[in-house]
Amino acid sequence: MNIAEIIYVVLIVALYATCYFAPETVKTRFTTPLRRWTRPLVEKLFPSLRKDPWLFEPIAAQDLPLKQRHHFEAHSAAYVSHGFTLLGDFVIRRDAEPSCTRFFLSRDRTSIGELACYLGSQTVGCMTVLLDGFYIESANTELNQLPPAEHGLEFCLLKTDDAAEVIEHHAACVARTAAVRGTQPAPLTPSDLQAVVNHGRQLSLRSLHHQGVLAELPDFLKDKQP
């Protein structure tokens, strides 16, 4: 960080502190413009806070960053042995190192498997959409706060390094939730990949916004109907 950026950060902290102690009418008037003004630097310092549409740019396996390729190679066999078909590798977003994901489609065409390398974290998971639009995602990750079911999605998390366990856990979770909701998984085709992933992300971001975790929706979601 250079001197100009350090000065910028100091000014931002001072402005936020002023707004914090200011009367409520002042906060309402200045907080939103302040967020917009500070967003570029905040997103530069904390890339995970940058919310852009995902790219889904195909990438050849040999062009993947080495650690990401190793992650994909280490866990792909578990998906194949469970009847999943490889859909391909994609760049989701570009930073100093691109975030890439390998996607699969289950034999019964109701679940998308994913091996994700996102901003340095590596996960394995699956996702399914029920016929009523309810989204279910399983992964070997942790979340501090799970979304309520009324937000239209469910995360079934499992702490394990075994992709096969995540796949089987997801199947059980989908069967249970579908039975409770009186519906079944929607049939998918390879061309549905981007729509399913975007559907889950949109629901997740809207849920974070409703819970107050996300101050405002990303620009690319503001004009879209929930």
Please summarize what this structure is.
By secondary structure, the protein is of the alpha+beta class.
Describe the structure.
- The chain is α+β, with helices and mostly antiparallel strands and 226 residues long.
- It folds into two domains: 3-45; 57-222, no CATH class.
- It has six helices and seven strands.
- It has helices spanning 3-21, 24-45, 66-81, 163-181, 193-210, 219-222; strands at 57-58, 85-93, 99-105, 112-118, 121-129, 135-139, 153-157.
- Strands 1-2-3-4-5-6-7 form a seven-stranded mixed sheet.
- α1 (3-21) packs antiparallel against α2.
Summed over residues and divided by their number, the pLDDT gives a mean of 86
Strand order of the largest sheet: 1-2-3-4-5-6-7
User: Helix share of residues?
Assistant: 40-55%
Largest sheet: 7 strands, mixed
Anisotropy-based shape: globular
Distance between the termini: 38 Å
User: What structural class do helix, strand and pairing data support?
Assistant: alpha+beta
